[in-house]
Write a structure and sequence with these properties.
Rossmann fold; 49% helix; ATPase
């Protein structure tokens, strides 16, 4: 386990990326969400790795990228914040294929015991070129993670619906407690 690796997960459009940007601005290491990077790296609209073309291929690529992110962050000291990670990718892979990968991947690649969960926040959720799914799909994803995290023995801390700076203060206070 990398005790300084902190997972920020939860509902799509729940403000995770904004929170990571704020934490990075405060000098902390922050790792961008694999899913958005996969979409940006796609070789055109028919690329099978895009989530709307092949959810299983997308999830497999997200697992690979999340594992590579962890490896790249091994030498970093202090808190390292991950916008999604292995748990999210493996959960999506299980949902897309039924392959039981979540528990095994998590066991080998744990995050800090406290995981921060962004709740559904309809006022923040928007679609864009990298996030085409609607709020209902985001809710399903959130419910899947909300069930998986405690089952994996993480202490789930729900992020408050407050300003980005307030959320960053909240996360840092919880981690320092």
């Amino acid at each position: 386990m990398a005790d300084n690796f902190v997972l920020i997960t939860g509902c799509s459009g729940g403000g995770k990326s904004s929170l990571l940007t704020e934490l990075a601005a405060r000098g902390y290491a922050a790792v961008e969400e694999p899913g958005r990077r996969i979409v940006r790296q796609a070789r055109g609209p028919d690329d099978p790795v895009l989530p709307w073309n092949d959810p299983a291929a997308f999830a497999r690529r997200a697992v690979e990228m999340a594992l590579a992110d962890r490896e790249a962050a091994r030498g970093l000291h202090g808190w390292v914040f991950f916008d999604r990670g292995v748990v999210d990718a493996a959960s999506a892979l299980e949902a897309a294929t039924g392959e039981p990968s979540l528990r095994a991947l998590d066991r080998a690649h744990r995050y800090h015991r406290r995981v921060f969960l962004a709740p559904p926040w309809p006022q923040l959720h928007t679609t864009d070129a990298e996030r085409r799914h609607g709020f209902d799909a985001a809710l399903e994803e959130h419910q899947r993670l909300e069930a998986a995290l405690p089952a994996l023995d993480y202490e789930v801390i729900v992020l408050p619906r407050t300003s980005v700076a307030g959320r960053a203060d909240f996360v840092l206070a919880i981690l320092e407690a």
